[in-house]
Specification:
The protein is built from 18 helices and 19 strands. The longest helix has 19 residues. It is globular, with a radius of gyration of 24 Å. Helix 13 runs antiparallel to helix 14. It is α/β, with parallel strands linked by helices. The model has no long low-confidence stretch (mean pLDDT about 95).
Length: about 550
């Protein structure tokens, strides 16, 4: 590192001192904290993003958001060249620089990392980082801190995409690195075109018929203003967008609130009974549906597990049609995999397996789900909280494009040709870079139209098993070590056998524990045939955790 670069780094870093007594940790959501504590961290993540761009010779993304957290919080996370999350191998570096106590310590960490990763500054090609932020008031100053961090690396430049949803920024990074136009307008065009194609090839043949009314709770976040913009071009779908800036972000609104509390969000009530409703979260990367119960503030929730089931059912159907009567030389036995975590309701897993689908579990966290889904030709993952997407392999899409071209010449308009067109449209509509509430919502609407289903018929695919989640404060959460996608405890010795013995007492019982990734608690999840049984099982296992690990309460 030359003297000019060294001086630039040290001078810039001195303007963003680290807060005293705060420890930052980069997780699935990047760094999150009270916004007042984040300037130095965002500055340093700006530096990291520039270095990542130099190393990969690709465009990198940096998003300022705290998703479904309260409005006084904020956060920062990095999008890799694929549009996916920052590679896990760089997370320890992110932690180290965020917690460096002073500019000299930061400089030493950077120099050591540059040597380790063989990154040379000064001679490297120019770096580019796309910046985005949600609607939080603290976002503007944090974007400026990120720009300063990026500018402290010679040859690096920032492109400010303005106020965008988190999935939009991930999509832009992926598109830019594929050589595709990557503006917000391009994003809308791709969604609208592929949604129109799916409606055109609907099995109901109702491409000119309005697909019905939908009410969307936008969490008073960035997704609301984007959906209002998008809906002006949706002539076949009538959307009533509520909670898009007139209230407090994530306060009594949003997918996280609706999914956890199972009550109507603000500005919804009994008059909405029977109408299809959906809820986005604060940065529009989660989506859940619901219907309001008559004369009540309670809802029938249609969560991420049900969205996963709907998508799986549709894609399986299209693959079967495509391969029907196909000779071996032309068929492609695409692998279709469904990826869940142990938190997925057991009834959803059973339903998917009954469809004949391959279902695999991963540890909790989007990075694990996304990585596993990428192993399939078509990989679908969703969490119950409404975060998920569908991934298509390049090899399958290349085959599908070729097959579609063949079918358009030999049997245009046939069932097989239409199935190929639908699959291609899904691959363009769904945001393969990250979970995206806007693209997910349009795909749900297109599939419901294709099947001719109401939200009630969709929700009746299976009945969720009653469940209960609890957490136990413990002295040391790292004492709990799990395997088999967090469903089996291997340490402390004996606790898994005790959990198994307790679980066996309850019909359809299932229970697991796992250490929290963010706080000194152990999380307990239990399912059983009745709510009373699920509650009893969860409370019994809490006592076992106290017994084996010692509680701080």
């Amino acid at each position: 590192m030359n003297q000019e670069q060294r001086s630039l780094l040290l001078h810039a870093a001195s303007r963003f001192p680290a807060p005293l007594g705060v420890k930052f940790s980069y997780g699935t959501s990047g760094f999150r904290a009270d916004a007042s504590l984040l300037e130095s961290t965002v500055f340093r993540v700006g530096m990291l993003a520039a270095l990542r761009s130099i190393q990969t010779t690709s465009v990198i993304g940096l998003m300022i958001t705290a998703s479904h957290n309260q409005v006084s919080d904020n956060g920062v996370k990095v999008a890799d060249p694929s549009g996916g999350m920052l590679t896990q191998s760089w997370e320890p570096f992110a932690d180290a620089i965020a917690n460096a106590p002073d500019p000299l310590s930061l400089f030493q960490l950077l120099e050591d990392f540059l040597n380790k990763e063989n990154i040379t500054l000064g001679t490297a090609p120019a770096a580019e980082v796309l910046l985005g932020r949600d609607t939080r008031p603290s976002g503007m100053s944090l974007v400026e801190a990120a720009k300063q961090g990026i500018a402290s690396i010679m040859g690096a430049s920032a492109t400010d995409m303005g106020v965008v949803t988190t999935p939009q920024l991930h999509w832009m990074v992926r598109a830019k690195n594929k050589g595709i136009e990557a503006s917000e307008l391009n994003y809308y065009d791709q969604l609208l075109t592929s949604f129109g194609c799916l409606l055109e090839y609907s099995a109901q043949g109702n491409c000119s018929k309005n697909v019905g009314d939908l009410i969307v709770d936008a969490a008073d976040g960035v997704g609301g203003e984007k959906l209002v913009k998008l809906k002006t071009s949706l002539s076949l779908l009538t959307i009533d967008v509520r909670n898009y800036g007139d209230g407090v972000l994530n306060e009594g609104v949003g997918a996280d609130y609706v999914q956890k509390e199972k009550v109507v969000p603000r500005n919804f009530g009994p008059e909405d009974a029977g109408i299809r409703c959906a809820s986005l979260d604060g940065d529009a990367d989660r989506l859940v549906y619901f219907s309001v119960l008559s004369n009540s503030n309670k809802i029938d929730l249609v969560d991420g597990d049900k969205i996963l089931s709907l998508f799986s059912l549709f894609l399986k159907e299209q693959l079967e049609i495509l391969n029907r009567h196909e000779d071996a030389s032309k068929s492609y036995q695409a692998s279709l995999g469904v990826v869940q975590t142990a938190y997925a309701n057991g009834a959803s897993t059973d339903y998917l397996k009954q469809l004949g689908l391959e279902v695999v579990l991963t540890p909790t966290g989007v990075k694990y789900l996304h990585e596993k889904a990428a192993e399939y030709d078509i990989g679908i993952y969703f969490e119950a909280n409404g975060h998920g997407t569908i991934l298509f392999s390049d090899s399958f899409l290349a085959w599908l494009e070729n097959r579609n071209n063949e079918l358009s010449l030999t049997s245009k308009g046939s069932e097989q040709h239409t199935a190929a067109l639908r699959l291609l449209a899904v691959s363009k509509l769904i945001n393969q870079a990250a979970g995206d509430a806007l693209s997910g919502l349009l795909l749900v609407e297109a599939i419901l139209q294709h099947l001719g289903w109401s939200i009630h018929k969709w929700n009746a695919l299976y009945k969720d098993l009653p469940s209960r989640q609890l957490k136990v404060k413990v002295v040391d959460r790292t004492a709990v070590i799990t395997e088999n996608a967090e469903t089996t405890v291997v340490s402390p010795a004996g606790i898994q056998e005790a959990i198994d013995a307790e679980t066996a007492k309850y019909p359809q019982g299932r229970c697991f524990i796992r250490p929290s990734g963010t706080e000194d608690v152990v999380r307990v999840y239990a399912e059983a045939s009745t709510q009373e049984a699920a509650d009893s099982l969860a409370n019994s296992v809490v006592k076992l955790v106290d017994q084996y690990l010692g509680s701080t309460s």
